[in-house]
């Protein structure tokens, strides 16, 4: 094998992975964020790369570094993430592992908001962000395989099953992010893979191993589709 020429079951395939949180600015020094570290999305991207895929890794401001050997596109907001995903199309598969902020601040100020002396906090006006997973699942250039994640604290399976249908994606990797699991910011993940064939609970595994397994499943699926 020549250096730089990918080999493996995903050689010649392009996969888009979103990862990390998004930051939604309030003013130049403040933003709304969430506790995503980007660890799971990073592990999925590394798993896909190891199987030979060309990976476009669209990442918000994560705490873990992006994996080597993928094309990194850094974004901050949900709107920027959506635009970057659109630019990266077409793809053979898309894995939306980012913890996209559900809302953005529409009253964001381009100057630092100051206390006005009244003792009253500023009222932030917010709007719902574009749903990147739902959009790509119905896009004209929809990748043949679209995988979403579902971070839930209650009724994990029921919520993930509903979410899969509502979003129009093929698979949902449902993860229990209840504080007691330590998943948010932790090194392990407890997931259920929900497909059109039902729900497949995986044992609690290191996030790297979840990434490897998911990449292997994607390779398996795309291999069958081509053959
Ligand atoms: N997602 C997305 N764009 C958004 C919100 C979510 O692409 N604006 C994707 C996530 O990357 C994930 C999936 O949708 O793959 C599910 O995210 P989740 O937050 O669990 O679902 P929501 O539809 O936002 O529902 P809620 O947070 O209310 O449970
Ligand atoms: Ca959400």
TrEMBL record:
Region annotation Phosphopantothenate--cysteine ligase: where it falls in the sequence: 15-227
EC code: 4.1.1.36, 6.3.2.5
GO biological process: coenzyme A biosynthetic process; pantothenate catabolic process
Any one GO MF annotation of this record: metal ion binding
Segments forming domain DNA/pantothenate metabolism flavoprotein C-terminal: 10-220
Cofactor: FMN; Mg(2+)
Catalytic activity: N-[(R)-4-phosphopantothenoyl]-L-cysteine + H(+) = (R)-4'-phosphopantetheine + CO2; (R)-4'-phosphopantothenate + L-cysteine + CTP = N-[(R)-4-phosphopantothenoyl]-L-cysteine + CMP + diphosphate + H(+)
Keywords tagged on the record: Decarboxylase, Flavoprotein, FMN, Ligase, Lyase, Magnesium, Metal-binding, Multifunctional enzyme
Cofactor remark: Binds 1 FMN per subunit.
Binding annotation for CTP: 102, 112, 130-133, 149, 163, 167
Pathway where it operates: Cofactor biosynthesis; coenzyme A biosynthesis; CoA from (R)-pantothenate: step 2/5; Cofactor biosynthesis; coenzyme A biosynthesis; CoA from (R)-pantothenate: step 3/5
GO cellular component, one term: phosphopantothenoylcysteine decarboxylase complex
Protein role: Catalyzes two sequential steps in the biosynthesis of coenzyme A. In the first step cysteine is conjugated to 4'-phosphopantothenate to form 4-phosphopantothenoylcysteine. In the second step the latter compound is decarboxylated to form 4'-phosphopantotheine.
Entry similarity comment: In the C-terminal section; belongs to the PPC synthetase family.
Descriptive protein name: Coenzyme A biosynthesis bifunctional protein CoaBC
Organism: Paracoccus chinensis
Taxon lineage: Bacteria, Pseudomonadati, Pseudomonadota, Alphaproteobacteria, Rhodobacterales
Gene of this entry: coaBC
Covered residues, full protein: 202 to 428 of 430
């Amino acid at each position: 094998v020549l250096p730089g020429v990918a080999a493996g079951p995903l050689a010649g395939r392009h996969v888009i992975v979103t990862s990390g949180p998004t930051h939604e600015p309030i003013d130049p020094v403040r933003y709304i964020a969430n506790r995503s570290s980007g660890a799971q999305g990073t592990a999925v991207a590394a798993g896909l790369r190891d199987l030979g895929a060309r990976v476009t890794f669209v990442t918000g401001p994560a705490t873990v570094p992006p994996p080597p050997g993928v094309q990194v596109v850094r974004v901050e907001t949900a709107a920027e993430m959506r635009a970057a995903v659109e630019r990266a199309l077409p793809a053979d598969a898309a894995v939306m592992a980012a913890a996209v902020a559900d809302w953005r601040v529409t009253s964001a100020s381009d100057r630092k908001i100051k206390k006005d002396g009244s003792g009253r906090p500023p009222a932030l006006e917010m709007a719902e962000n574009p749903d990147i997973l739902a959009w790509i699942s119905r896009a004209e250039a929809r990748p043949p395989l679209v995988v979403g994640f579902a971070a839930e604290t209650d009724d994990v399976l029921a919520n993930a099953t509903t979410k899969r249908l509502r979003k129009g994606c093929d698979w949902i990797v449902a993860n229990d992010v209840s504080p007691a699991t330590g998943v948010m910011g932790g090194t392990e993940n407890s997931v259920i893979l929900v497909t059109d064939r039902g729900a497949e609970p995986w044992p609690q595994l290191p996030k790297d191993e979840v990434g490897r397994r998911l990449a292997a499943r994607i390779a398996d699926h795309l291999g069958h589709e081509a053959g």
